[in-house]
Specification:
Blueprint lengths: L9 E9 L4 E10 L5 E4 L6 H9 L6 E6 L10 E4 L10 H11 L4 H14 L15 H13 L5 E5 L7 H16 L3 E5 L3 H7 L2 E6 L2 E7 H6 L4 H8 L5
Helix pairs in contact: 2-3, 2-4, 3-4, 4-5
Length: 240
């Protein structure tokens, strides 16, 4: 029996992305394997969100090569992404998840039960019938997580998953991320919150000026930063 196809390790080899007027990221070299969450940190404009979109396959590199599990082509069915500002459909929370399940190819007769399971997983059973656009910001983020998990991904990309949330809502989202990571899903997360990176990540990728500046285990990154720029960023100094 053949083992299931994996999108890990994910490798970016000398990857650049540029527009007509600017280089957004350049010469990215990074390997992401299975295990604890990987957090992408760095100042605004460092290229974190662009790296995630490249790794997800939403945009193609201008130069360089990306491979998923050693393959240059992947249909993306084993990857999912939650955006910083997810768009809620004009329907109930349960119907939002059911729509994601339909897009993932789940049969109609199984969607309602699976949607209920996913809503329970993110603690939203009590708002299943409520219009998604009337949920609080934290509830909408958890609903977006449920929609992403509808794909049963091997890799889940999160772009600033708790930006603008209050501490209680942030904790609720982080608890879900921990549980998802424990289930074996690889989390790759861009975050501006170093406290969050400390709490959740096993690996830190520090980005600066559109490239990978430092990559290290989380404990080593925070306790023994490899470069002056990384040390300054950890201290809270302005790094550009």
């Amino acid at each position: 029996m053949r083992p299931p196809v994996s999108d890990l390790p994910l490798k970016l080899e000398d990857v650049s992305f540029f527009t007509r007027n600017a280089v957004i990221v350049r010469d990215l070299a990074l390997t992401i394997g299975a295990g604890a969450p990987t957090a992408l940190v760095g100042p605004n404009g460092a290229g974190k969100s662009t790296l995630i979109r490249l790794a997800m396959g939403l945009i193609a590199p201008s130069a360089g090569r990306i491979t998923w599990g050693g393959r240059a082509e992947s249909d993306g069915r084993r990857r999912a992404m939650m955006f910083q500002r997810p768009v809620m459909l004009r329907r109930s929370a349960a119907a939002n998840v059911a729509y994601a399940l339909q897009a993932a190819g789940l049969g109609r007769d199984m969607r309602a039960a699976r949607a209920a399971e996913l809503l329970a997983q993110v603690g939203l059973t009590h708002v299943a019938d409520r219009p998604a656009r009337r949920l609080s910001g934290g509830e909408q983020q958890r609903l977006a997580l449920a929609r992403a998990l509808a794909r049963e991904p091997e890799i889940l990309f999160l772009d600033e998953p708790t930006a603008s949330l209050d501490p209680a809502a942030t904790k609720a989202v982080e608890d879900i991320i921990r549980a998802v990571a424990r289930s074996g899903v690889k989390i790759v997360m861009a975050t501006h919150d170093l406290g969050q990176a400390r709490r959740l990540a096993g690996e830190i990728v520090f980005m600066l000026r559109g490239t990978v500046h430092t990559c290290a285990g989380a404990e080593r990154f925070f306790t023994a930063p490899a470069t002056p720029e990384a040390a300054a960023f950890i201290r809270g100094d302005i790094v550009i």
